[in-house]
Each structure stands twice: as structure tokens, then as C-alpha cells.
Amino acid sequence: MSASTDLVQRQLDAYNAQDIEAFMAFYTEDAELAGLNGAVNQAGHGAIRARHLDLFAEFPENRADVVNQIDLGSIVMVHERVERAPGGDNFEVAAIYTLRDGKIARVDFARGS
Q1: Which of 37, 42, 79, 91 is the most exposed place for a label (fewest CB within 10 A)?
Q2: Closest Cα to residue 4, out of 89, 96, 83?
Q3: What is the 3-state secondary structure (H, E, C) of 31-95?
Q4: Do 9 and 76 touch, CB atoms closer than 8 A?
Q5: Distance (Å, rounded) from C-alpha 23 to C-alpha 35?
Q6: Helix (H) or strand (E) run with residue 110 in it
Q7: Number of Cβ atoms within 10 Å of the Cβ of 28
């Protein structure tokens, strides 16, 4: 596992544990979350933290698992399978992580049906 894929996986582990402090430690202060080819939905630690605190409260058993990934060094593309609760709503997403200075600077999401 490269340093880039290890960083993304550790971020995903913190996400699955719903450990907001560990999760946020993987993001630059000016990080952005966006829809693929769309507008930025959250910008900066405050907005990303708020989004995930809401998500963790609404879906306490939420989990994302890696199906496949492509490592291009400063860009890591991950095909993730997300399950909101065991036996509940699930979907797949392509997350394109842009890394800068050892942290995640941007994530672009493309959600499948």
C-alpha cells in the first residue's frame, strides 16, 4: 500500500468509526467536498465537520468499504460501497481524493444508483 492509499484508507477507517477528530485530522484546513463536475458543497474544516457530525447522528451504523482503487500519487480514486445500516439503504460512490502536503485537499464524489 502506498502512502497515498494508506492515507485515504486511514481516513475511511476514521469515517467508519465515526471518530470526527481522527477523520478531520486527514483534511487540510481549506479542504473542499464537491459533486463530480459540480459545485463545492462544503469548504473548510467547519463545514466538513458539521456535515459529518450530522451524517453520523442520522446514520450511526453508516459504513463505507473500498471495492477498488486507483493510486496516481497525489490523486486516489476509490470505488466505495456505502451502507447506511445493516440491511438498510446502500449505494456506490466514486470518490476522487486530491492530496496535498500529506492531507486530503479535495474530494469529488460521483454517486451511482
Answers
A1: 37
A2: 96
A3: EEEEECCCCEEEEHHHHHHHHHHHHHHHCCCCEEEEEEEEECCCEEEEEEEEECCCCCCEEEEEE
A4: no
A5: 20
A6: strand 103-111
A7: 17
